[in-house]
Amino acid sequence: MTSPYTVIRGGLVLAHAHAKAEPLDILIKDGEIVAMGPPGLPAPVEATVVQADDQLLHPGLINAHTHGHGTYAKAMGDRWSLELLLTAGPWINGDRHLEDKYLSTQLNAAEMLLKGCTASYDLYSEVPIPTAEGMNAVAQAYVDAGMRATVAPMMADLSFYQSVPGLIEALPEELQKFVAQLAPQSFRATLSGLTDFLDKQRNPDRIRLALAPTIPMLCSDEFLQTCGEISAERNIGLHSHVGESYVQALTGMKRYGSTIVQHLDKLGLISPRFTLAHAIWLDERDLDILAERGAMVAHNPGSNMRLGNGIADVNSMLERGITVGLGTDGSNSGDNQNMYEAMRLASFSSKVRGPDTERWVTTEQALYAATEGSAHCLGMGEQLGRLEPGRKADIVFLDLAHINWIPHNNTVNQLVHLEDGLALRHVMVDGQFAVRDRQLTQVNMPRLRQQVEQAQERIARNTHDKRHITEKLAKAVGSFCLCLGHDRYHVQRWAHPSQDLT
Ligand SMILES: [Zn+2]
Questions:
Q1: What is the Å distance from ligand 1's center to 133 Cα?
Q2: 384 Cα: distance to centroid of ligand 1 (angstroms)
Q3: Distance 123 CA to ligand 1 centre (A)
Q4: Are 75 and 29 a contacting pair, CB within 8 Å?
Q5: Distance from Cα 258 to the centre of ligand 1, integer Å
Q6: pLDDT in tens, 163-211
């Protein structure tokens, strides 16, 4: 019989973002850290011994915002704003069978694990509507890959076109007909189809459930309020893209007569269970509300730059004590799933906002966001994010002989500003190797590759018409949104000195 104990000996341990790396042994029982101490830590004789000499051990990184459906669409676009990405949706997310939902998510999990990430908050978009069957396949893909996830179905009861005042009217007639078919079904039908998913938590140790009303403007107020009620009744997370783009900020003002955050607060949605993805176009009052209500932010600096959404004012969030997690966003908008890069960009992007060094995000803050901050967003703030007794043994092992660490000057600076995942050797989740010697232990990558590539060939054939029509739509949507940008908003988040877009 295998022992429930594992002891890791000889490693240099960075226990959390504010710690100093020190030589420590780690004793694990049934997936949980039970003791840590100087080399020679007593352990039961039957414990499995893992030698970690010349390796740095740090808490598994946690991705606070990703999309499992996005992997099939990695690198499909360039010069896509958020609105152009949404326009491409019927093409790049089209023709997905149940098996594709599993495979695309497993591809997401595989990339994250290989790059040192042990848990994620996955907002999965099933087209045309989320189903219990589809969301269970998503959850199973994470479990089978050996990873942890909080899984949230993305939901809407309005199409993107219905959500932007004046957009449909600005389209040529042929395109108006196409977008009319994209209107989602009623939210009650959507929610009733998800009951089985919400009621049956199949693997509560690895999988948490949440709800993701995708973007507030794509949801009626009644829908949003209902999501808030379900979140409170079941004590599960809520996650939404809030203030991601200037188009959203302006549309919010037109629709609600207030900022989006102030409107959501009126509906009672802003709570400690609520994570706002991006949160770029928020004003001072909005941030005060988040702080007062204990809501959290999932910061996605890579995606924010790739989609031209601007740079979130993370320092103003941290100054208010708002919990900030860090994410990559989906591969359809952030392309890679590299949390080391996300930390680097969280630091670097704050440093181009202005000259006051006191307002820059520090490497400790970036690492905290990628570990404990994200853990809170996932609803696992007490179990994950640090290496200490009582927490899950989700551990990344980096090779200190790798060039990234020669010489080893400052552990946290080096982890955030220099490490890119190339020094990674092993990854443990619950004290079990999910990656060993740079290979996934539970995913057959050649097989996964073959399955994904076969599916992608089929999808390319079957979405050809949608590609054609969404490319036509993109021209109309792009120019409409650019015109919208001439309306002033009272917050400015681009590196461009004014809101004049030309
Ligand atoms: Zn997203």
A1: 22
A2: 22
A3: 7
A4: no
A5: 23
A6: 999 999 999 999 999 999 999 989 999 999 999 899 987 788 899 999 9
Name the DSSP letter for residue 295: -
Report pLDDT digits (tens) over 286-320.
Answer: 999 999 999 999 999 999 999 999 999 999 999 99
Cα–ligand 1 centroid distance for 70 (angstroms): 9
Q: Which domains does the chain have, with CATH numbers?
A: 5-58+393-440 (2.30.40.10), 61-377 (3.20.20.140)
- Residue 168: Cβ within 10 Å count: 14
What integer pLDDT is reported at residue 127 of this predicted model?
86
**H/E run at residue 275:** strand 274-278
CA distance 28 to 34: 5
191 CA from centroid of ligand 1 (Å):
20
Question: How many residues are listed for the chain in this entry?
Answer: 502
Please tell me the distance between residue 55's alpha carbon and the centre of ligand 1 in angstroms.
34
If one compares 498 and 502, the residue with the highest pLDDT of the two is: 498
Ligand 1 centroid distance, CA of 216 (Å): 13
Element (H, E) at 448: helix 445-462
> Cα(214)–Cα(9) distance, rounded to whole angstroms?
45
Determine the pLDDT at residue 268. 97
CA-to-CA dists, residue 301 to 308, 346, 349, 356, angstroms:
10, 6, 7, 19
Q: Where does the pLDDT of residue 247 fall: very low under 50, low under 70, confident under 90, or very high at 90 and above?
A: very high
**pLDDT score of 502:** 47
- C-alpha pair distances (Å), 481 with each of 31, 246, 250: 50, 9, 10
Q: Is 348 exposed, middle or buried (0-12, 13-18, 19+ CB in 10 A)?
A: middle
| Cβ atoms of 179 and 473 closer than 8 Å | yes
Using the mean position of ligand 1's atoms as its centre, give its distance from the Cα of residue 340 in Å.
18
Tokens of 489: 């908003």
- Interval between CA 329 and ligand 1 midpoint (Å): 5
pLDDT tens string 477-490: 999 998 887 778 99
**How far away, in angstroms, is 338 Cα from ligand 1 center?**
15
Distance from Cα 300 to the centre of ligand 1, integer Å = 8
Distance 25 CA to ligand 1 centre (A): 38
Question: 337 C-alpha to center of ligand 1: Å?
Answer: 12
Q: Average pLDDT of 323-327?
A: 98
DSSP 8-state class, residue 264: H
